[in-house]
C-alpha cells in the first residue's frame, strides 16, 4: 500500500533571531502492507506529522521516493490523493456547520457519484446519524473525532492516514475509536496512524516503526519488538544503583540505571527474581521497592535511544 525510501524534510524558518533549520525527517524508509494497521510511534517533534504530510502530498519531500496506493508520490500526486483519506491531528471539524454538511462537502470534492447516499452511509457506520444535523461545536470530543474520520472516509479510500487520532480523548472514547479503527481494517482499509501513546501502538498496530529525531530507530510487530529487547523487566529502587547493577549483571541480559531506579532485563523474571534478591542481600544493598513487568514498547524505545518515551516527550 505504501513503499517509501529515504524520505527527508528540513524546515527553515526566519525570524528576528536569525535563520533556524530543523531536520524534521532525516531519511525514513517505510512499508505498509494492504489491510494492515501500521503505526508511527514517537515523542513530540519526532517527525511523525511531517512524514504523514509528505506521504499525503501536503508537503513535498526534499529527498526520497514513495509509491502510495499504487501511485508515484511525486509524479502522480492526484492519483495518491484520490486513493487516500487524511485525518489531521486537529481533526478539521467546523463549528458552525453540521456533520452532514461537512461530510457532504468532502464527498463532492472527491466527486463521489451519489454524495447524499455516501454521506448517509458513513454517518450510519460511525453512529452519527442522530447527531448529523447539529452544528459541529455542539459535539463532544469523541463525536468530533468520529466526524473527522467520516469526512476522511466518505469517498471510500483503500488507505487512511490518522494523525494522532485519540489525543485528548478520555479512556472510553479511545477504546471506542480503537474498535472502529479495527473495524476499518476488517473492511479491508489499510491504516497508517501516528501516535505517541505506547499502549495505543501496542493494542492497535499490526506493525509499527519507532521514530526519534526524524530517524527510524526500530521496526516490527509489537511483540517482535518487545521480544527483541527482552522477556521481562525487573525494576528496583535501590540505595546504590550502580553497585546493585554490577551485582546483578551476571543474571541479566542488560541493566540500566535511571536515578535511583535500576532496570534489569531478563528472559524469565519469575525465576530470576529470587536469585537476584539473594545476590543483593548478600552484598548488603538496601531495597525500597520492586516490580516485575513484561517489557513494553517504552523499554524498546529506551533500549534504542537511551531515553524513555516519556522523557523524550518532556524534552521536546
Ligand atoms: N512548518 C514547519 N516549519 C518549521 N518547523 C517545522 C514545521 N513543521 C514541523 N516542524 C518541526 O519539525 C519537527 C518535527 O515535527 P512533526 O510535527 O513532524 O513532529 P511530530 O512527531 O508529529 O510531533 P507531535 O507529536 O508533537 O505532533 C519539529 O521540531 C517541528 O518543530
TrEMBL record:
Keywords: Antibiotic resistance, ATP-binding, Nucleotide-binding, Transport. It is found in: Cell membrane. GO terms for biological process: daunorubicin transport; doxorubicin transport; response to antibiotic. It is a peripheral membrane protein. InterPro entries: AAA+_ATPase, ABC_transporter-like_ATP-bd, ABC_transporter-like_CS, ABC_transporter_ATP-binding, DrrA, DrrA1/2-like_C, P-loop_NTPase. One of its GO terms (molecular function) is ATP hydrolysis activity. Residues 2-238 form the ABC transporter domain. It holds the Pfam family ABC_tran. Belongs to the ABC transporter superfamily. Drug exporter-1 (DrugE1) (TC 3.A.1.105) family. This is ABC transporter. It comes from [Actinomadura] parvosata subsp. kistnae.
Amino acid at each position: 500500500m505504501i513503499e517509501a525510501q529515504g524520505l527527508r524534510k528540513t524546515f527553515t524558518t526566519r525570524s528576528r533571531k536569525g535563520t533556524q533549520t530543523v531536520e524534521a525527517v532525516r531519511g525514513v524508509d517505510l512499508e505498509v502492507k494492504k489491510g494492515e494497521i501500521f503505526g508511527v510511534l514517537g515523542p513530540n517533534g519526532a517527525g511523525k506529522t511531517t512524514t504523514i504530510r509528505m506521504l499525503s502530498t501536503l508537503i513535498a519531500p526534499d529527498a526520497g521516493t514513495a509509491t502510495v496506493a499504487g501511485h508515484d508520490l511525486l509524479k502522480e500526486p492526484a492519483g495518491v490523493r484520490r486513493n487516500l483519506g487524511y485525518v489531521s491531528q486537529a481533526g478539521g471539524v467546523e463549528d458552525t456547520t453540521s456533520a452532514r454538511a461537512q461530510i457532504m462537502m468532502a464527498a463532492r470534492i472527491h466527486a463521489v457519484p451519489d454524495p447524499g447516499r455516501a454521506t448517509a452511509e458513513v454517518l450510519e457506520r460511525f453512529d452519527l446519524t442522530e447527531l448529523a444535523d447539529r452544528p459541529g461545536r455542539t459535539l463532544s470530543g469523541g463525536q468530533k473525532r468520529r466526524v473527522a474520520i467520516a469526512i476522511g472516509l466518505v469517498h471510500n479510500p483503500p488507505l487512511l492516514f490518522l494523525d494522532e487520532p485519540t489525543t485528548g480523548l478520555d479512556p472510553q472514547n479511545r477504546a471506542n475509536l480503537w474498535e472502529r479503527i479495527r473495524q476499518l481494517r476488517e473492511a479491508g482499509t489499510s491504516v497508517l496512524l501516528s501516535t505517541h501513546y505506547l499502549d495505543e501502538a501496542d493494542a492497535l498496530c499490526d506493525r509499527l516503526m519507532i521514530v526519534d529525531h526524524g530517524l527510524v530507530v526500530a521496526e516490527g510487530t509489537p511483540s517482535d519488538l518487545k521480544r527483541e529487547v527482552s522477556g521481562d523487566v525487573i525494576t528496583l529502587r535501590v540505595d546504590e544503583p550502580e553497585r546493585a547493577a554490577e551485582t546483578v549483571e551476571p543474571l541479566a541480559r542488560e541493566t540500566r540505571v535511571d536515578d535511583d531506579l535500576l532496570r534489569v532485563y531478563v528472559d524469565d523474571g519469575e525465576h530470576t527474581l529470587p536469585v537476584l534478591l539473594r545476590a543483593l542481600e548478600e552484598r548488603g544493598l538496601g531495597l525500597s521497592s520492586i516490580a516485575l513487568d513484561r517489557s513494553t514498547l517504552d523499554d524498546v524505545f529506551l533500549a534504542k535511544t537511551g531515553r524513555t518515551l516519556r522523557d523524550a516527550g518532556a524534552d521536546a
